[in-house]
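WARN no homologs supplied; continuing
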Amino acid sequence: MIFIITLLTFLFYYFASLAVDKPRKQQIFILCFISSSVVLRDIINITLNNDYYLYYNFKIFHKPDGFLSFLINEPYLYCIYSIFNNFFELKSDVFLAMYWFNFLINTSFFIWILTRRDVEVFKKMILFVLYYFVLGFVVLRNGPSYILFSLFFYYTFRDFKFKWVLLTPFMHISSCVILVTYFYRNKWYYIVTMLTPIILIFLFFLFSKFLHSLPAFESILFKINYYSKGMKAIGLAHKVFFIFVCCLFLTGVFLYKERMNHPILVTTMLVYTLSFFINPSVAHRFSPYILFALLLAPFSFAKGNGKVIIVNHLTVLLFPVFLYSLFLAHKNSLFLEWFS
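OK structure emitted
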């Protein structure tokens, strides 16, 4: 059952992407995609996703014990938790509602991508197969942050302002690193970008004892220790994904030449590369920024380009990757439910 609904969800999105120049036909496929994705969300037990109990047991999501704690500990998720906590008595029901809310945001975002006429089909499909499940079925804090940054990248590349991205530090603190791209028009941008992390690291070590003494920083320090512990080994999957991102970026350099010198693309790629050699797991959390920036950039091929049309149609072969991303985002017991 899960396999069939997953296949239908993928195919409906694929055909909706191809029908971008046929609005009525695309609307039908979008409605089918919404229906199948809702069914898929309903039949997959939310407790099977890899991060569920980390949120449920408040390990990577904390209740604030004061205003400072609320302000610096990514208050977005706690606000969502508090809202649903007023409507449901059982904690499990509260988290179920939170996951459904996150699912609706994520699905709406990918439908928005579907309707972009200036983004090629193969780019839409790459983003869909890589991030639909992780953003909509697993992460609750960083998912909305990635989405706001994606909107920021898209509109900024097209000379529109998008100030909602300034809310991202209240959703996931790691977004502060990428938020520097908001100031890319400043003539001192690259100098400030290089000096800022050095200064922050210096200040952190200088005031580390003081920060450790503040209860408000306990959850942040716990997250840093949790994600860094035992995650320094570079696995095959990390290497393959790193090579994939680098190849995609280098392909952009080959095709678009100096247009790839955009500060947003340079910064996101630099952050991803440096973080990979520091901690591959952390780099994986920064990878959506470079991929969404790169694939939503206004680098379009000539309409009707035969090679691009072929590549667009061949993206149907990405289904195994889509399937893999589903199981990568969930516990192994999902395999049992597949055959049940």
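The mean pLDDT is 86.
OK
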